[in-house]
Request: fold
Amino acid sequence: MRGFGFITGGFIFGVFLAFIAAWVFTAMIRWRIFVKAGQEGWKSLIPIYGDYVEYTIVWDGKWFWIDLAAVVGASLLFMIPIIGPTIAVAGIIVAMVISVVFAMQKAHAFGKDDGFAVGLMVFEFVFNILLAFNDDIVYQGPQPTPGFFSKLRNSDLKQMYAQDMHQGAPQGQPGAYAGAPYGQPQPAQPAQPVYGQPAPEAPAAEQPAPETAPAAEQPVQPQPEAPAQETSIKVCPKCGAVCGGSDRFCSECGSPLA
Reply:
């Protein structure tokens, strides 16, 4: 009996040591992921707050509170007989959807595809080791979430509603964003006529200016060239001085020039 008790105690102690080692290694993985994402590692060790910070790293912190409210609400609703479990199923479904999108956002935040996200959902421990210790995986920040989650994440529904109200669209008429691609500049909506008031006159169409025939080009007349003036010189027969061709007397001796 003493030998059996010793074996049992040793087995329990071994399981306890294995649990402690697994917890320490998991904390190291989580710490490493936080540091790679630019956060302080100690934040990963704080319960609840560490999960909130992880949501802000890969997605948006408000989805953590929605997930937490869904899980806690579902747990409390199970205590209510008959109708409680039925409503709790809705909370469980919400929590599961958020968990799936969280895994996708976590993979995308570190530059990985949806296949890696599936690995995070199925083998979270193994793929977290890859995120933590693989230097080729680099943190790139939260990425846009497709579809409905993206609109809620960026509060696009509120912005679109505010834009619609700002444009003053009448009740029952499509707003400024209806029928136009999301994120593109919206075309101006024409003014709607008000009952009991005359419709606004349409602006007169601008008449195109009449085209004038181009003036006929006049041929360019060639200008006669001026005759080149002949330059001549005269030599004084008496002193041999060189004089201009129009001079009648020598500029040196005053003798008449032929």
About this structure: The radius of gyration is 47 Å. The mean pLDDT is 76. Helices lie at 2-36, 49-58, 61-77, 83-109, 114-122, 124-133, 148-153, 156-167. Residues 60 and 139 are 16 Å apart (CA to CA).
